[in-house]
């Protein structure tokens, strides 16, 4: 079961035996590659990590670090031309071997996803209610229109959208950016998923709204016990929600550990640079540092 | 035939809006690579070759006619059978060493000579109309997009009005009402009059977005005049769009000229034009198919070549921008 | 919504007025004197003057134009006293050739043009959209390249060439279809259908090619949209993703373009009707051009303009109904 060359996560037990302490998500040797004219390019290289049941994992990296490809690889929603190898186990079930049909049963039901740009991620032609209830209707048979509507309203209330009974019939363009992201989160709730993957959920939003959305994600996690993978380029965002952190760069895993350790005692130079780039209160004014990359040196 | 801009133009409109990358401003950057891409495309080369042949045919028409031995207006009663209502003698509408493409039924005029001279008319009208349309489209598009405000409103209204017009039927109405002298010049003017808004609309949109760019702002800040900014900063950035749109306009105009001539409001007989030759072949199509097949095939291949070429150039231009 | 409608109606009226003015100027100012034409060969100046007075041609331009416009809405009377002829609204005048009211002539021909237009529209919409869908699904594969090649060919073949070619092949050489001949639907539906088949095909090929390209481009573009990925992330089956999230946004613009193209066609397919000898509005126009029958040409031009402008407006309203972003304003 265990592969010797795996970059096994230090703080989490690599081999979980029984169902009770088996991790919710277990990723090993995950590699995503694109075939280009000049040969194969690996955008994710032999990545491995565990996510315990109900845990919150932050994946941090700059754009191009492979963090978003990791999330799409778990969902099997990689763009055309991308190849995925390695192992992804959800609650002991190997996902990489599943057929498209079986994978459909996993998507939306057991793993749900929140995307970065809520406006373009919502279909402008349908009401938010229709889109929220869509996952429920896809996974349950014989759902009536009225039931679907009730599910949608409930989900909207859970993400604190005021006046949900009326707003359920509105279209995405009638909502503000923060409200749209709440709608996106509401879409993940109807099926009570075991795992929610949020890919840069706050990047497109105003700073004040960002905090509200992060609070909401934390609240959802607390209430439902769902595992959370939060993907972001912003360490400050992760610090509020995640208890485990992975730092990625150019497809490689740079460092991983508990949030506390990463913040207090970063091991890798790159992590230190990322941390330095986060403005802190104790920083001297005007001392914002930028990240020096290898190419710069 | 409804006269709408060719679909490629319509797509150009959609795709064109996104362009205007300042990096694509320097033509020498990828010029050679574009030429190489183009030469590797066998279909594009074949299309260019056919267009070149037609252009050469048009240019050397008097010479070719001397070689073939018959002028375009010369009757040859010996080549037709007066007992059969003037049906050409011999196979395929009288094809032979004397008349290479056969003769017209009835009066025995040489089809080869009329095709060659017809190429002259078709190409001249189509190319002149394209040139005039491009000038009008670029000028009005630049003016409307650069100055904005009231100027833009007036130009945009005029464009909307012209585009809402049933252009083909109106061209026919205008051409049938106006006197017949100098029909070819009239055709160019009428076609361009209804054609320029389609280019102007795209040029306007791109000019508006280019105007916001840093390099235009900095030119403005350094005291450049409006004319300098338009010609030195904006126009070079529009070149690839203009080239694509122009190539795509030519087949439309070749077809429009032929269509108008077919309906009898274009080029006046006895001057040959391909559309008009096809029109006069209508009563004969059942007994002498060669009469419509020759001009029909030449016309079809010309329109096809321009269309395919435009399509390819557009793709190359887009991928070039993608690389930049 | 009401303001939008009023605005659109006003814009439509302005365009139609300008079309009338434009046409009128060209026909009654630039073209040769119609009185001379009507009078014929044995004609003296007095007779010409009489005709002019009868037609109101002795009046200043604006008076003439006003009479014409009011004739459109309220009808007009030609001549005076016992010779007076009443022309009911919408009055487009009388044909120089047949002396029939132009309005009647057009109305008689409209059913044929409508038949041609409807049949062709159904054909090109079906063929274009389905070929476009196939092309989009098989993007880059053989079927896609084959269809793309076909569309380029379809767009390039002039419809009169295609008409002659089809007639020559299907009727003369192979004998699969009968010679086109006007047969009323009630008399022999089968024959009627065969009779219109070729005009439908000829008229729809070019448009079908255009719609194929549009459908293909729109579908491919829509499939890249983020909301399609969202739909897949919800666990929807590929069929559902296609039907609900890709097709509707991709086909909406096509519906709107279709309205305009169809309206343009209703005003008569000049070339196709002429080549196949169908007695529609288009044939009427091309016949009138040869005979220089100005009132008829003008009548057809105005009808075509009217249809296109109305079609434009219907499309705008339709778009408002289909696209929620236009229908309901944003909350902010």
From TrEMBL, chain A:
<feature type="compositionally biased region" description="Low complexity">
    <location>
        <begin position="1"/>
        <end position="14"/>
    </location>
</feature>
<keyword id="KW-0067">ATP-binding</keyword>
<dbReference type="GO" id="GO:0005886">
    <property type="term" value="C:plasma membrane"/>
</dbReference>
<dbReference type="InterPro" id="IPR003593">
    <property type="entry name" value="AAA+_ATPase"/>
</dbReference>
<dbReference type="GO" id="GO:0016887">
    <property type="term" value="F:ATP hydrolysis activity"/>
</dbReference>
<dbReference type="InterPro" id="IPR017871">
    <property type="entry name" value="ABC_transporter-like_CS"/>
</dbReference>
<protein>
    <submittedName>
        <fullName>Peptide/nickel transport system ATP-binding protein</fullName>
    </submittedName>
</protein>
<keyword id="KW-0472">Membrane</keyword>
<keyword id="KW-0813">Transport</keyword>
<dbReference type="InterPro" id="IPR050388">
    <property type="entry name" value="ABC_Ni/Peptide_Import"/>
</dbReference>
<comment type="similarity">
    <text>Belongs to the ABC transporter superfamily.</text>
</comment>
<dbReference type="InterPro" id="IPR013563">
    <property type="entry name" value="Oligopep_ABC_C"/>
</dbReference>
<dbReference type="InterPro" id="IPR027417">
    <property type="entry name" value="P-loop_NTPase"/>
</dbReference>
<dbReference type="Pfam" id="PF08352">
    <property type="entry name" value="oligo_HPY"/>
</dbReference>
<feature type="domain" description="ABC transporter">
    <location>
        <begin position="25"/>
        <end position="275"/>
    </location>
</feature>
UniProtKB/TrEMBL annotation, chain B:
<dbReference type="GO" id="GO:0055085">
    <property type="term" value="P:transmembrane transport"/>
</dbReference>
<protein>
    <submittedName>
        <fullName>Peptide/nickel transport system permease protein</fullName>
    </submittedName>
</protein>
<feature type="transmembrane region" description="Helical">
    <location>
        <begin position="43"/>
        <end position="65"/>
    </location>
</feature>
<keyword id="KW-0472">Membrane</keyword>
<feature type="transmembrane region" description="Helical">
    <location>
        <begin position="234"/>
        <end position="254"/>
    </location>
</feature>
<comment type="similarity">
    <text>Belongs to the binding-protein-dependent transport system permease family.</text>
</comment>
<keyword id="KW-0812">Transmembrane</keyword>
<dbReference type="InterPro" id="IPR035906">
    <property type="entry name" value="MetI-like_sf"/>
</dbReference>
<dbReference type="InterPro" id="IPR050366">
    <property type="entry name" value="BP-dependent_transpt_permease"/>
</dbReference>
<dbReference type="InterPro" id="IPR000515">
    <property type="entry name" value="MetI-like"/>
</dbReference>
<feature type="transmembrane region" description="Helical">
    <location>
        <begin position="161"/>
        <end position="179"/>
    </location>
</feature>
<keyword id="KW-1003">Cell membrane</keyword>
<dbReference type="Pfam" id="PF00528">
    <property type="entry name" value="BPD_transp_1"/>
</dbReference>
<keyword id="KW-0813">Transport</keyword>
<feature type="domain" description="ABC transmembrane type-1">
    <location>
        <begin position="119"/>
        <end position="310"/>
    </location>
</feature>
Automatic annotation (TrEMBL), chain C:
<keyword id="KW-0812">Transmembrane</keyword>
<feature type="transmembrane region" description="Helical">
    <location>
        <begin position="250"/>
        <end position="276"/>
    </location>
</feature>
<comment type="similarity">
    <text>Belongs to the binding-protein-dependent transport system permease family.</text>
</comment>
<dbReference type="InterPro" id="IPR000515">
    <property type="entry name" value="MetI-like"/>
</dbReference>
<protein>
    <submittedName>
        <fullName>Peptide/nickel transport system permease protein</fullName>
    </submittedName>
</protein>
<dbReference type="InterPro" id="IPR045621">
    <property type="entry name" value="BPD_transp_1_N"/>
</dbReference>
<feature type="transmembrane region" description="Helical">
    <location>
        <begin position="114"/>
        <end position="137"/>
    </location>
</feature>
<feature type="transmembrane region" description="Helical">
    <location>
        <begin position="157"/>
        <end position="177"/>
    </location>
</feature>
<feature type="transmembrane region" description="Helical">
    <location>
        <begin position="192"/>
        <end position="211"/>
    </location>
</feature>
<keyword id="KW-1133">Transmembrane helix</keyword>
<feature type="transmembrane region" description="Helical">
    <location>
        <begin position="296"/>
        <end position="319"/>
    </location>
</feature>
<keyword id="KW-1003">Cell membrane</keyword>
<dbReference type="Pfam" id="PF19300">
    <property type="entry name" value="BPD_transp_1_N"/>
</dbReference>
<dbReference type="Pfam" id="PF00528">
    <property type="entry name" value="BPD_transp_1"/>
</dbReference>
<feature type="domain" description="ABC transmembrane type-1">
    <location>
        <begin position="110"/>
        <end position="319"/>
    </location>
</feature>
